[in-house]
Each structure stands twice: as structure tokens, then as C-alpha cells.
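User: Can you recover a sequence for this backbone? Please restate the input before giving your answer.

Assistant: Of course. Working from this structure:
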């Protein structure tokens, strides 16, 4: 997700996306253990997206 896309989201949408991405990250970890991961860079990309979402969410809460 791009920064511009994230800024357009509402608080509820951000929270839903964070939950979805955390589940994806959980599944990526299992795939990594079982050597079934198809794209290892998705793990790091997912972590970065979660951090971006949390940063924007914190800004919206404090505003």
C-alpha cells in the first residue's frame, strides 16, 4: 500500500487492514518454516505496511 492510499482510509478501515495484514504475516511465518514461501520479500513488505498503517492511525487519533 502506498502512503497516499493509506492517508485516504478511515480509522475503521485502517484497523481492519492491520488485522488482515497481521494474519497474513502469521501465515507467511508458517510458510517460511515449512519452506513453502514463494516470495520472501512479502514478509518484510507486510511489516513495513503495518508500521505505516499504525503511524497514520496514531496521527488520526491525536488530531
Amino acid at each position: 500500500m502506498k502512503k497516499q492510499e493509506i492517508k485516504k482510509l478511515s480509522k475503521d478501515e485502517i484497523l481492519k487492514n492491520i488485522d488482515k495484514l497481521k494474519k497474513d504475516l502469521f501465515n507467511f511465518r508458517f510458510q517460511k518454516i515449512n519452506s513453502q514461501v514463494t516470495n520472501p520479500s512479502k514478509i518484510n513488505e507486510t511489516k513495513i505496511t503495518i508500521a505505516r498503517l499504525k503511524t497514520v492511525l496514531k496521527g488520526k487519533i491525536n488530531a
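That completes the design. Helices lie at 3-8, 11-33, 41-62.
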